[in-house]
Specification:
The structure holds two protein chains of two kinds. Chain A contains 25 helices and 27 strands. Chain A is of the alpha/beta class. In chain A, the strands form seven sheets. A seven-stranded mixed beta sheet of chain A has the order 5-4-15-14-13-6-7, with helices on one face. In chain A, strands 21-23-22-27-20-24 form a six-stranded mixed beta sheet. In chain A, strands 10-9-8-12 form a four-stranded parallel beta sheet. The radius of gyration of chain A is 26 Å and the shape is globular. Chain B is globular. The chains are: A alpha/beta, B alpha+beta. The complex binds iron/sulfur cluster (3 copies). One iron/sulfur cluster binds next to helix 2 of chain B. One iron/sulfur cluster binds next to helix 1 of chain B.
């Protein structure tokens, strides 16, 4: 049954890839004039296809961009040979066309200037803009050292600049994707299994028998290949267990939905461990062979019975037992998913550790249907002189977090605020491809930093809010108009994907690699950019791994054979985990030696007072971060967010469907814009929910401006993770106002 | 031969990829759509049920839109697909009014437009754009008069429903439940 479906899809998708094909899939339909006349008025132009990989989100699906003779992009379709997308893009990838066609794009370099005492941006030439950026960077280097120039970045443009910064002598580099998103789970899993989870996660969803999602709304979170594999798993009869205070889409596809009281997840995890251990359901052979500190864990979780957890989580003991047994009976083909955006309550690394330990008890790490051993191809670095050694960098800035493994954006922002004892003075920012205002909470910190900095340059494709703080704005062309570094990401088999320009850049926009090189030349770093065009670099790199630019332009994705060994643990063969003990650390000596909890503990978190609701947020499948809200194709699908409230809450607060309300958090922060109410049973009565990324306040975003509320803007309290510095963002509660409370104050 | 679409609501995640794919494939102007996704929630917290459905023209066997078209622009083509010949359409809107599914819209260029099951792609042996892109692979397409086809098989082995059966239009888009 499955086989016939697969081959059916394959043939047709080959056709979609532009390969000549007789009507194999539907031989029954003859060429027919009635159909010709009825199909469409528009006579399609012949299309040309170009290899690319998507940049609408970070999943980086390889795709073909189809452009017409007039040089305009018509559609984007997944590359059939890509293990990230299996030939199918998610809605954002399909709507990537809109990133290119958006008339609101940044078009020319802009420089902040004062006209009649008022700050304005004036249009500038590339030469002028780049000269100014180089001059400011050089000034900062001369006066304070290169370390005082910070790079805050995300995505492909970020990596070109990372090279520039390292050559320049600065390692003051951070990205919100770490401390604001997935960092804690890397720490939690790293401490337990010795390896990061990374992206894409090596979850063997295709073959799983039980998938456990905790606050992870896969499907609304369109992690393409995972969503596809989840659908296959549903076909194969896999059980899904979803823990979420909201009835998420995937909750509706689950055998078990545990509508947990927010902030109590660790209690549930501990009691699951209790059931597995005390009902003798854990994978004994695996634990004995690979586990470290199991006896300590056993003792630790003794008191955490389902009855204990019931009082905390509101999940019935019977449900806790049943779900634990379901996980155990599917084990080791069970995945307790590590999740994404796991920065919630400040004890997130420990929660991630609890998730990891649970996987360890089930034996799922390294087993089919659990977690596989990923592999990727190492792309050789184009030769360049050695980087200088900075005196300090992201590590020193975040030194109070013993397990931080990447720059912490919040700490970099704090270090940018002038103060007497500024140990690591940051004087300039280069922000590339990340709208900090929407990705990092505590906007007041960003504002203070912006005031104290000597210089801010922002590189983006769109006039995001952060561009409003810039001294210089560098308009980047979209991913459809440029080359970028090769995509090499870990999967079951390694693969490499190419991004080539499908069309010439519109307006006066330029690719990031070109800007980095031009700045490098101006900063006396030409030796690090010893090539004319990026094609030379790509071709050289590809030749080192047995391909070429020419070949990659034709195939887009190249898959390689595994070299690192089998996908799963081998029976009878020893395996050493890359941890201190060489085993899965149920008990962490490392944490204990630092005076930290060696095993996860449950600590109660603040709950909302009467009249307040916990502010929860998440994703709409049509949007990525805040960067796609203005995309004409995607805003056509969802152009504003709504406030999900339970009918009980609607009754208490006297709210009607569609009514506009304002929010105020417990620090008196009022939302900038109103938001429409959505009355739905899908949310608990102690929380409200909204999609992330909306409520743009930049008028230049004509479709996105003023639509809905920015959740980030309402987050003024963060709970800091003591292990790696993650900024937990579920600590804010909101009150609902029918009238704009800020307006009253103004009168 | 009769084309039909079978959509598994147990797998659809409501992402609307089908909608974007249709828009770019068929140059549907922004602000219009040939297909769309609906959500219905039943029950009360925490006993809930959610159904997501990707909807479009049902290519009805008994199509009121064809019957009421004064110019013959709306017609039934090969494989039972209902099409509109744009050049013959005078944009009177009779078909829009007669469709119980609200599946038709007036294109800014004056004629009436709607889902064609991507007939231009079928001719090339390709699947409809929405089917080919759906990340959960919850949409199936084929000939229901062929008992060996996947769609026939699904309709035999699974429970399903059609939209507004009481309208008597005999739809050819089926929802597995
Ligand atoms: S693309 Fe597929 S999963 Fe997404 S809404 Fe459409 S039918 Fe549902
Ligand atoms: S769904 Fe509407 S437009 Fe389509 S065939 Fe039926 S009646 Fe006509
Ligand atoms: S079959 Fe084609 S025209 Fe119909 S909804 Fe799907 S993509 Fe659009």
């Amino acid at each position: 049954m499955n086989n016939s479906r697969r081959s059916f899809i394959k043939i047709s998708a080959l056709g979609a890839g532009g390969v000549a094909l007789s009507s194999a899939a539907f031989s029954a339909i003859p060429l027919n004039d009635t159909i010709n006349s009825g199909v469409s008025k528009i006579k399609p132009l012949p299309l040309r296809r170009t290899a690319t990989y998507c940049e609408v989100c970070f999943w980086k699906c390889a795709a073909w961009a189809y452009s017409d003779e007039l040089g305009s992009i018509q559609k984007i379709i997944g590359n059939q040979n890509d293990p990230h997308c299996f030939g199918r893009l998610c809605p954002r990838g399909t709507g990537g066309v809109g990133m290119y066609s958006d008339k609101d794009r940044l078009k020319k370099p802009l420089i902040r200037t004062e006209i009649n005492g008022k700050q304005e941006f004036k249009e500038a030439s590339w030469k002028e803009a780049l000269n100014l950026v180089a001059e400011k960077m050089q000034n900062i280097k001369d006066q304070y050292g290169p370390e005082s120039m910070a790079l805050i970045k995300h995505g492909s443009p970020g990596s070109h600049l990372e090279h520039l910064f390292k050559a320049f002598g600065s390692d003051t580099i951070a990205e919100p994707a770490y401390a604001q998103c997935r960092g804690p789970r890397e720490t939690g899993f790293g401490l337990t299994f010795g390896s990061w989870v990374g992206s894409p996660e090596p979850t063997d969803i295709r073959d799983t028998k039980c998938l456990v999602l905790i606050g992870s709304h896969l499907g609304e979170n369109m992690h393409n290949s995972q969503v596809q594999e989840m659908s296959d798993a549903i076909d194969n009869g896999a059980q899904i267990i979803t823990v979420d205070p909201r009835f998420s889409t995937v909750a509706s596809k689950s055998q078990y939905w545990l509508p947990i009281k927010p902030s109590t997840d660790i209690a549930l995890l501990l009691s699951w461990m209790h059931v597995l251990i005390y009902e003798d359901l854990y994978n004994k052979e695996y634990v004995e062979k690979y586990g470290h500190g199991f006896e300590a864990l056993k003792k630790h979780v003794k008191p955490f019975s389902p009855e204990w957890a019931y009082g905390i989580t509101t999940i019935k003991p019977d449900q806790i037992r049943k779900t634990a047994r379901t996980m155990a009976s599917a084990a080791p083909s069970t995945i307790v998913h590590p999740g994404r955006h796991v920065t919630w309550y400040g004890d997130d690394s420990q929660r991630a550790r609890a998730v990891a330990i649970l996987n360890g008890l089930l034996g799922s790490w390294g087993n089919r249907g659990g977690f596989y051993f990923k592999e990727k191809i190492k792309i050789p670095k184009y030769p360049h002189p050695e980087y200088p050694h900075p005196k300090w960098g992201w590590k020193e800035i975040g030194e109070k977090f013993p397990f931080a493994e990447m720059g912490n954006t919040t700490e970099v922002i704090k270090a940018s605020i002038a103060s007497e004892d500024q140990k690591y003075p940051i004087k300039g920012w280069f922000v590339a491809g990340t709208n900090l205002v929407a990705s990092v909470p505590q906007k007041n910190l960003i504002e203070k930093a912006a005031e104290s900095l000597d210089f801010i340059v922002v590189m983006d494709t769109m006039p995001m809010e952060i561009t409003g703080y810039a001294d210089v704005i560098l308009p980047e062309c979209t991913y459809l108009e440029r080359y970028d570094g090769l995509r090499s990401s870990p999967n079951r088999e390694p693969s490499v994907a190419l991004r080539a320009p499908a069309v010439e850049p519109l307006y006066n926009t330029k690719p990031a690699w070109w800007m980095a090189k031009e700045l490098g030349n101006r900063l006396g770093l030409s030796a690090y950019f010893d090539y004319e065009t990026i094609e030379e670099v790509l071709d050289w790199q590809l030749k080192q791994i047995g391909s070429s630019l020419e070949e990659m332009k034709k195939i887009g994705v190249k898959n390689f054979k595994r070299k690192s060994g089998p996908l799963y643990l081998q029976k009878g063969k020893p395996y050493e985990f890359p941890t201190q003990s060489g085993k899965i650390e149920f008990y962490s000596d490392e944490l204990a030696s630092l005076g930290l909890d060696p095993m996860p503990v449950y600590t109660p978190h603040e709950t909302p007072n009467r009249g307040y609701y916990r502010l929860n947020y998440g994703r709409s499948p049509m949007h990525t971060f805040s960067r796609t809200i203005n995309n004409p194709n995607l805003s056509d699908l969802t152009d504003e967010n709504t406030l999900w409230v339970n009918p009980k809450v609607a009754r208490i607060e006297n709210l009607k469907k569609g009514q506009e309300v304002w929010l105020e958090n417990q620090d008196g922060k009022v939302s900038q814009f109103p938001i429409k109410v959505r009355v739905t049973e899908r949310i608990r009565w102690d929380s409200v929910y909204m999609y992330h990324g909306f409520g743009h306040n930049n008028k230049k975003l004509s479709r996105a401006h003023g639509k809905g509320i920015s959740d980030t803007d309402m987050i003024t309290r963060i709970k800091v993770d003591p292990l790696m510095g993650g900024t937990g963002m579920r600590g804010n509660f909101v009150k609902i106002h029918i009238e704009n409370p800020a307006k009253e104050v103004m009168i | 031969m009769k084309y039909a679409m079978v959509i598994d609501t147990l797998k659809c995640v409501g992402c609307s990829d089908c909608v974007v794919a249709c828009q770019t494939e068929n140059k549907v102007p922004v602000g219009y759509c040939r297909d769309w996704v609906t959500e219905s929630v039943n029950g009360s917290y925490p006993q809930l049920n959610l159904e997501l459905k990707s909807e479009r023209c049902n290519q009805c066997d008994n199509a009121p839109c064809v019957r009421c078209c004064p110019t013959g622009a709306s017609h039934k083509a090969e494989g039972g697909i209902i099409l509109v010949t744009a050049d013959e359409c005078i944009g009177c809107g009779a078909c829009i009014a007669s469709c119980p599914y609200d599946a038709r819209f007036q294109h800014p260029d004056g004629y009436v437009d709607k889902c064609t099951f991507c007939a231009h792609r079928l001719k090339e042996g390709q699947l409809p754009a929405c089917v080919s892109v759906c990340p959960t692979k919850c949409m199936y397409f084929g000939d229901i008069e062929d008992p060996t086809s996947k769609v026939s098989h699904l309709l035999k082995s699974r429970k399903y429903k059609v939209l507004a059966p009481e309208a008597g239009t005999k739809p050819n888009v089926y929802y597995l439940i």
